[in-house]
Amino acid sequence: MKNKNIEKLVIKTNTGTCIKEINKVSGGLSHRMYKVSTDKGIYAIKELNSGVMKRTEAFSNFIFSEKVAEIVKHNKITAIGAMKVNNDIITKIDDSYYMIFEWLDGRILNADEITEKHCEIIGEILAKIHNIDFTEIEDEKRKNIDLEYFEWNKYCNLAEKHNKVYTNLLKENIDLLYKLNEKSIKALEYANENLIISHTDLDRKNVMWQEYNPFIIDWEASGYINPTIELIQVAWYWSGGDVENIDYNKFRILIKSYKKYYKSNIDKNAEDLVYADIYGELEWLNYNLKRSLCIENNYEQDEIELAENEVIQSINEVKYNYSQLDNIIKIISNI
Q: N or C: which end of the chain has fewer CB within 10 A?
């Protein structure tokens, strides 16, 4: 069925008259990605998550994110955006939605492959994105970010009822989750007084490399964010924080590179900002708990299992992140 839809997509979008090969590729945690070879070229085709597409804001979010990518590309940063078909970036085939990208021969780095040079490059790119004038797509409504107190106890009860593999881990850390949820919301109320438009998910899975040349992909999460919070997030990911093996020298190098190219000042109110940074991880945990428990939508088994793994990883990341806060605060305060 999926292959039939992709065949219809290729014909409808004039990206080929016949398909030579379709391969599912690893990548997105929410959507499915395929490498599709046709008689006209090679494409990366993203099948959008059906649950995501049911949200009322889904289409406008994708359109906004592609506008961000286009502006970034015009500012000489290698942003990879979706192809337009009849002036649209999303094509519907039967009950499924797709985006098409030119295939890029590059690779996503493993955590242990990231060097200090990579960190320096990413720091420079992030600063240059933050320097961009996005006035033409400013949207005050998007600044109204809803902050949520998540229902950890509810999820814990449902997880126990359905005998989820992460039940005990969730139980053991539920007090910490409530504490961090409260602290992160208070911190964001301060941080959200200074917001800019950016990628907001610039971790290693969203950068493809050809040698030391980076290409920024997956702009879906683009929106408003405090620039220093995004700097902390990006430094955290690229220095190994996401795999619980942070290299604080890489962390410093990325921040110093960013500071060299950023036209404004870094906010050094570190204690508030590091707690604000944790909210994104809590939000991702909340999303995957809902997916794994089929709250709001029904999901296929492979997606449920993916969400369960993300729940476990997210809880462990939150614990590790919390254990490193004092060190991060010191570094930010002394930059």
A: N
